[in-house]
């Protein structure tokens, strides 16, 4: 008997992840995993979907704990991953009271290292021809880093995963030292985390393309969710459409796709200008 085919979404108890699971339940034929770091919130999300006669499977997964990642990997080891959507993420808004070094540590830990560690752990179970979608942001565009030297390092095709991890850790250390980062990394840990996610996406694409596995990252738009305290210009349901397309029928791999479905050059001009009309 061939192994059961599954789709996995991280951070799916609410917001964009929840909306993606909801759509996957009606469009994908295999088993859909709704994962969440908090068991109660995950089970509540499952109950909510039951009301629409949708039945994803719940499993607890906190991407910032290797133990949680390993538990999940053990759970799916006899299954085949056809779709993996790395959605879990956090953002400290500008008025956050937490110290900057804590914000940097947590943001890079969850948004970058969590995504990378989870993905690397489950890659052995991803089916040839599988699809990996990393939920990035407009903040993940390379132009958001002030330093040309850093931009060159991040976008180098020779950058190994170990070097990328070291680069990301060096940012956290720089924040902890209290370095002036205005002309180098800039003032947003979220930007650094998502630039890291994009660099990882392209690294993974290069490594997995021989297996026909597509790896793309997407800016989902300004999504109305708890992350933005309910502000935004697109509902999670509408924002889920482009990530869903990349999970079901991608038109390529190694792409950074904007919320309107257009692949954008990562090292080109900021698409917020020429697509969203922001000056
Ligand atoms: N909203 C936007 O405008 C926007 C724009 C661009 C990109 N994005 C990206 O879209 C993704 C989804 O964001 P959203 O707007 O839907 O935000 P959200 O409503 O705050 O949802 C974030 C999800 O991630 C989960 N999460 C946080 N830390 C986690 C961890 N360590 N392990 C597992 N799950 C964790 C949260 O769980 P809890 O409920 O337990 O906290 C929640 O389920 C994020 O990657 C975000 O960066 C959002």
From TrEMBL:
GO terms for molecular function: carbonyl reductase (NADPH) activity. It comes from the Eukaryota. Coiled coil: none annotated. The keyword Ribonucleoprotein does not apply. The keyword rRNA processing does not apply. Keywords: NADP, Oxidoreductase. Pfam families: adh_short. SUPFAM superfamilies: NAD(P)-binding Rossmann-fold domains. Belongs to the short-chain dehydrogenases/reductases (SDR) family. PANTHER family: CARBONYL REDUCTASE (NADPH), CARBONYL REDUCTASE 1-RELATED. This is Uncharacterized protein. It comes from Manduca sexta (Tobacco hawkmoth). The lineage of its organism: Eukaryota, Metazoa, Ecdysozoa, Arthropoda, Hexapoda.
């Amino acid at each position: 008997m061939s192994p059961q085919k599954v789709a996995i979404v991280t951070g799916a108890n609410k917001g964009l992840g929840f909306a993606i699971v909801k759509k996957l339940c009606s469009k994908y034929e295999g088993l859909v995993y709704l994962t969440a770091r908090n068991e109660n919130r995950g089970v509540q999300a499952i109950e909510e979907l039951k009301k629409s006669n949708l039945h994803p499977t719940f499993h607890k997964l906190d991407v910032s704990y290797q133990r949680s990642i390993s538990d999940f990997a053990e759970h799916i080891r006899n299954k085949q991953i056809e779709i993996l959507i790395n959605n879990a993420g956090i953002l400290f808004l500008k008025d956050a009271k937490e110290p900057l070094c804590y914000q940097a540590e947590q943001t890079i830990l969850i948004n970058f290292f969590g995504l990378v560690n989870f993905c690397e752990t489950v890659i052995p179970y991803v089916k040839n021809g599988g699809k990996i979608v990393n939920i990035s942001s407009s903040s993940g565009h390379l132009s958001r880093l002030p330093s040309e030297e850093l931009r060159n390092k991040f976008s180098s095709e020779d950058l190994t995963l170990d070097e990328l991890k070291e680069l990301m850790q060096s940012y956290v250390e720089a924040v902890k030292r209290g370095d002036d980062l205005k002309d180098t990394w800039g003032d947003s840990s979220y930007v650094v985390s998502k630039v890291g996610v994009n660099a990882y996406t392209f690294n993974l694409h290069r490594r997995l393309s021989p297996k026909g596995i597509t790896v793309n990252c997407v800016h989902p738009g300004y999504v109305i969710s708890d992350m933005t305290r309910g502000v935004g210009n697109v509902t999670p349901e509408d924002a889920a459409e482009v990530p869903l397309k990349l999970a079901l029928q991608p038109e390529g791999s190694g792409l950074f796709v904007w919320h309107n479905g257009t692949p954008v050059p990562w090292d080109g001009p900021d698409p917020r200008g020429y697509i969203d009309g922001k000056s």
